[in-house]
Each structure stands twice: as structure tokens, then as C-alpha cells.
Amino acid sequence: ERKGYSFMGWDREIPDIAVESATYYAKWEPETYTVTFNANGGVFSDKTETVVYEVIYGDPIPFPEDPEREGFSFSEWNTTYTVMPAEDLFIDAEWERNKYTVEWISAGGNSKTATYYFEETVSVAKAEEKTGYRFVFWSENADGEQADIPEKMPAKNLKYYAVYELNTYTLTYHAGIGFFEDGTNEKVFEYKYGSEVKAFTEKPYAEGNTFTGWTPEEPKQMPAENTHIYAAWEINKHTVEWVLETNENGEITYSELEEYEYGETIDPYPASKTGYSLKGWFDEKNNPAPETMP
């Protein structure tokens, strides 16, 4: 026997009866073995998963083209043989998992890039905040539709854009101590961020007070927050005339004037007259003087 060879006989015929000394040489033929290359999850260019060669013992092993596999790069064949041994071989492809990137582009062009191995779980990034806007979703285009973000990393690089929507805010006018014509105490309007604010012309009213304007000043454009504006009031002042003397025609000959704010307590004037007691103060319709300023 000879490893890797088949015995084919002797170099010449051997006689049945030897008449002299002779030397005979064995004839050998190298055997043929198979080597099978397995793409191991990949495929060759003809879409097959294996390639089989028949190789004579001792001949160099022919290696096939590198196979392909989605999401992987071919690394090597897992064998140390380069010459055909006296046995059939089964050789697997070895692969290296590829890395890909996901780029998240949000407000102001801010970009965040994450790297993932093929089929690794993808974490969705948090979009940057944008003043006056609300983040809606990620899109494959700057102003496109919502993207279907894969849970696992595919065999390609990805890029997503943050899509925002204008926020709506409220602008509230508070009458404070007063009221509007419909009897309400406040008026609420909604505006999108940055839109022009319409001038509010309705003025509230409050008994005994004069409306002097709004504070703080109304914005020209809607800011990125709910805004409150309050009515400013100035309390009214009136005079009380205390008539002390009149002539026979009922004309005032002597009086005193005092100024009071609305709602302020009125102190009756301390009038005196010789031989008389002060009964009280009355207006021209004989109504007693009020206790507080109307």
C-alpha cells in the first residue's frame, strides 16, 4: 500500500517458476479526491452554495472565486491545505460581519452618526429641539413622509431627517378687575409660532376705573410660549362739593371741594352754624351723601 496511490501492478510479468534472481518494481497511480467549498451562508456568482473540484493527490488545490453574502465580507477559507491530501476535503468560507452607519440630521443641520453591525438592533435617535416647533417624525427626505426605520441594521448606510411642525400657542388678554362686552374676564387667541399677531382693539371696562392699555406690550409676532397680557387700570377720581351757603336765589355763595378716589370712604365735611345742629348732607334730590365715592 502507498498513501494516496493505487497499486497498478508490477513493471513486468512475474513467471510462475523463478529460474534466476530478479527485481520487480511496483507501478503506482495517484488517486483522485474531492474538495468541496461551502459558501457557508453565502453564494457564488452562479448563485450556488457549493463548488466541488476533483483533485489528484499531491496537486495544488484550486480555490474558487470569493463568494458573496449580504451584510458580510469574505474573510478566508478555513483550511491550511494548499496541496491535495489523501482524503476528501470540506472547506467552509469564513465571514466578517460588516458595519454600517445611520446618520440622524435634525434642527440646524446638527448631525449624529451611529455605527452598527449588520442585523444589530438600531436605536432611534432623539431629535434636537427647535424653537417654536414640535418634532413629528424621521424621514428619508428633508420634507418627506415618515420613514419606516428598521429594527435591525440592513446591509447599507442610512440617513434620516427630522421633520418638524409649527407649534400653536395661546395669547390671553386678562381684563383683571374689569370685563369685556360679553361679560367675560379674558379673551384667548391661538397663533402659530412666528405668525403675525392681529391688533386687539376691544377695550375692557371696570366701574370707577379707566383702562390705560395692556401690559406687557402686545407682541408683533407670536413667540414660542403661551403669552399673557394684562389690562392696566387707573382708578377714577371725583370731587365732592360741600355747599355751605347759598343766597335767596339758591345760588352757591360758599362751598368746599374735596377729591376722592372711586370707592374711597367719604368723610362728611365738619360744617357748623351758630344756633343749628348739622342734620346731614344731601344732594339736590334730597339723597344722603354716599359713604364711599361712586
Q: Mind telling me the C-alpha Rg?
A: 52 Å
Helix content: under 10%
Cα-to-Cα separation, first versus last residue: 134 Å
CA-based shape: rod-shaped
Pick out its properties.
294 residues, mainly beta, 4-stranded mixed β-sheet, 16 strands, rod-shaped
Topology (SSEs and partners):
Layout: E1 5-10, E2 26-30, E3 32-38, E4 50-56, E5 72-77, E6 89-97, E7 99-105, E8 111-117, E9 133-139, E10 158-166, E11 168-174, E12 186-192, E13 209-215, E14 227-235, E15 237-246, E16 252-261
Parallel strand pairs: 3-6, 7-10, 11-14
Antiparallel strand pairs: 1-2, 3-4, 5-6, 7-8, 9-10, 11-12, 13-14, 15-16
Question: Would you mind describing this structure in some detail?
Answer:
This protein is 0% helix and 41% strand. The N and C termini lie far apart (134 Å). The mean pLDDT is 94. A 4-stranded mixed sheet has the order 4-3-6-5, with no helix packed on it. Strands 8-7-10-9 form a 4-stranded mixed sheet, with no helix packed on it. By secondary structure, it is mainly beta. The radius of gyration is 52 Å and the shape is rod-shaped. The protein has strands at residues 5-10, 26-30, 32-38, 50-56, 72-77, 89-97, 99-105, 111-117, 133-139, 158-166, 168-174, 186-192, 209-215, 227-235, 237-246, 252-261. It contains no helices and 16 strands.
